[in-house]
Here is the input.
Amino acid sequence: MRSKYLQATFYVVMAAPAVALDLGVGSNGVAGLTVLPMATIPTGSLVYQYQNRVMDADRQEGLNHSLAVGLTSFAELGLRTADTSIKRNGYDGGGGIRDLSASAKLQFNNVLGLKDSPWKLAAGVTDYGGAATLFRSTYGVLTYDQRDWASSLGYAKAQKNLNNPIHGVFGSAAFQATPWLRLRVESNQERSWAGLTLSNESWLAKINAPVGASVFLNVDQQVRGLATAEGRKPWLGVGVNLPLDWSMGRQSPPSRQAQAASMPQQQAFQAMPTAPAVASAETMSAEKVLEQSPVATVAPQLSDAASSPAPTTDSRHAAMDRLSQALAEHGFEGIDVGQSGNTLVVKVSDFVYEHSLLDGAGVALGLLSQLAGEFDNYRLVQARWGTPSVGFNGQLACLAQWLKALPCPADEAVQPVFRDLDEALVGVDWRVRDHAPYRYKLRVKLNPIYNYYWATEYSLLDYSVGLNINPFIHLWDGGALEFSRSAHMTSSKEFQPGGNLSYSRIPDTNRRVLLHHMQKLNHGLSLRMSVGELMQGNVRGGQTEARWDSLNGEWATGLNLSHWQAPKNSTYLPTGGTKLAFARYAPTGTDWSLEVSGGEYWFKDKGFSATSSHWFGDTKFSYFVRHSVPPERFWPGKQSITVAGMELTFPLTPRRAMNADSGWQIKGTPRLGLSLLSPINRETENWLAYSNGAPIYQKAWVEPAIPNYASAVLLDSDRANASYFSGKLERLRYAYQRWVMKTTQ
Here is the structure.
């Protein structure tokens, strides 16, 4: 029966050849081959593999989950879960392990000035952290990497586990025999393995996954040395290689070096002089655009007088009327269109393109560019919740050429502006005001809400899942009334009433009703205020979020203050609040930030968090350390608590949401997170919950359950700044090609 299954699987995978898989992930959570690491890094990709055996454990049953993320061109972080106590509660006996561990790898080529060399040198560690370091190894490895083959040689030192293959001298080689077939051999001093990988890229291409995304099947077998309890039986692995940046669809995201020169230096609105178009090194040919996107290269003009050398007042008015209508048809609301001399001025509120401000900006700029025959220059103010978030200005004729990838310098076509945006709207002769009003419409955000535990003594996965129902009504520029309710959907055994984790079960309950206001002030300041009731505890009060962002966007700092009053004899949340501050550093051109925050939390514990975040398009991968010192002993063991973890956040909503022209709108959430964290330096205090199901550390780092809307919405998850926009202007062109050119053919 097993042979028939394998035969069918081989046929399905081989039936649709695809581009070869560059890197896999080993059972140990390290990028490389199935057993042993390589020095290469899966830059910008997440590689996951499930195996039906824990090949380095001396037990017959088991399964293995591993993943690796290439954070940069030289750094990789990985996770591994080895489980040989399948479907058993560890407290019920039966033996076996359920081990969650982290790994890391650093490549030294950048430091050695060998970035482009086929020789790669790296060092790393597996199974770092936790009390049961059964698979820990430290290693160094040298890899010679070619397009169709690679070989590695390394040395490692393992701890505790005699079955750990990453020990002593080791070597490996892989050969890409066809686009869908890779052969490999791996060996250390005592054992050897052989295997093959079958990969397929066409399946994921059907959902517009980036180039390089693939699914794969591994088959491996030990061919030399002392066998484990399973003997030398082959084992299977299935997995996926996912580039994390989906922002450009099937197009490869532009390289940082190629795009860095396209970021304008200007940071304020001003009149743009008319200048002849000149060739630009960073623009692509029109033929290349046609190859990448099957759309027309010239969209019909909204202006009937596009070719007229002297537009009349009537033709301009007619063009502005048509522009406002086109903007509304593409989902924008609260549309203002006017002119200041020979400059077209537009303000739009964006409730539709919530993956990134750049998507909405690309669509709006594409529509503005069609008035190039009517005006010389333009100013665009893009708003969130009706209040200005980011601006753009430039020459309309140059913008029209640049969007079509025809020669024109980017700094003449489009210049982002992040400060003092209201100045762009002063002294304007408005033709259209508040077309497609955004106020008083019902907008409902729906997204899953969950609590879960992974790889604990109770089971491999315990979960409680519900639906978050989050209606908004926007009342004024920057102001909104919000309500939130959670509805329980399903829970595993331990989250059921009376279970060991029942306290954290997603309830059927109202969560909050709040009134918010947020806006950008002058000189880089932003403000958000919220007042209302948090219904889990029926506490009433308010919260203020204030922040400052530097002109170049690399630095930000701010405060988050709140106070909430609990009713008398409350058995849930007491009267309390938070006094927190943060500082963030995000170097230009890196898609990386380091944020440190800390202060006093709800239960008077004082603590801090340090978070390193890497952006890949609209996906963010973060790893963090948190520390809390309560005013008294809140939990067993040490008085203070330190945890480390990682988080992956991504949009869970259509890239273009439904329009609200019917008076209502349903959409998902622009940021959904999956995280894992674990206490550190508490090897003998591995508790999860009290006997009533309440989490042991439930009083640490407690904050009001209110998103930081100024950072998350107004500043587009801290991306609406010059530091992040540097090198991202190509995305404006992609949005124009995807949503404007296709719909105006």
Remarks:
- Residues 2-243 form a domain with the Porin fold (CATH 2.40.160.40).
- Confidence is low (pLDDT under 50) at residues 1-21, 255-267, 270-308.
